[in-house]
């Protein structure tokens, strides 16, 4: 199969028929063999009824319904598990992304050999309150990850099959899929300027908290990528440094008390700094130990992806 289109959706019943017809039209004109997988993320409207209707009319239409709303990342992740096409395309259900981009995205993966192509909503049809924070996120993510993309969180993306079979996304990490793909060793990442349209039906499913969550996720991503496998290096270094500063302060105060004997130690503000620094230092150090224990017992501590092998027999042969 050439293409799997994965569409996460939450209460988008008005858009589905129009979107589906459009995708099918593009697939037919280009002679692609395809599947369209709808992941209904716990909708409370008629979305699932629509999907059932569509799949009766067209056997390439498939669907998964979550019992409740788990979020876009979970929906995408489940879609990635299910997809069987050689090229996998994700797109939003709200008709903001245009299916007309599919053939070109397919070509960039298939012929130009890219692992991942991310859409870039250069002319964005979203309110200013969303565009400005988004600029900030994209810039920080670009600097932290070293990936030169303008628009990390574009819903329209295309992947080589083995990329999506190798990565896992949970929480709200769909904003950072290119970063996750890069860690997994898929560095051939490209970008395509895509047409972006105003939301035609319904309302956005992400409120203001998207900015807070996005910001926290960015910090976790940075932390995990740099120290996830060796947390002690961060906490241990910080803890030791801070402890040493506290210790020097305390030693100096003790010296001053005994040899200059002119004041009580607790009367000097510095005393409290020293005390606090030693306590925080110890805490950080212990946090490092705990983090190290946790990361050692996690199931994926030795997970690696193998690209090729040579001259090895299968185990047990
Ligand atoms: N979505 C989802 N689960 C959620 C929130 C959103 O599957 O909990 C889907 C939504 O239906 C849409 C896509 O994710 O297909 C992008 O959402 P939306 O258009 O609301 O985001 P925006 O365009 O405002 O960034
Ligand atoms: Mg949208």
Quick summary:
The protein is α/β, with parallel strands linked by helices and 317 residues long. The protein is built from ten helices and seven strands. The chain has helices spanning 13-29, 47-57, 72-82, 102-110, 128-145, 161-166, 177-183, 209-227, 231-260, 269-297, and strands at 3-9, 34-40, 61-65, 87-90, 116-120, 157-160, 189-193.
Protein architecture, described:
The chain has 317 residues and is of the alpha/beta class. It folds into 2 domains: 3-227, Spore Coat Polysaccharide Biosynthesis Protein SpsA, Chain A (Alpha-Beta Complex), CATH 3.90.550; 231-295. It has 10 helices and 7 strands. The chain has helices spanning 13-29, 47-57, 72-82, 102-110, 128-145, 161-166, 177-183, 209-227, 231-260, 269-297, and strands at residues 3-9, 34-40, 61-65, 87-90, 116-120, 157-160, 189-193. It has a 7-stranded mixed beta sheet, with helices on both faces. Helix 2 (47-57) links the parallel strand 2 (34-40) and strand 3. The longest helix is centred in the last third of the chain and has 30 residues, at 231-260. The radius of gyration is 26 Å and the shape is elongated. It starts with a strand and ends in a 20-residue tail after the last helix. Uridine-5'-diphosphate binds at residues 8-10, 12, 41, 69, 71-72, 75, 92-94, 96, 155, 204-206.
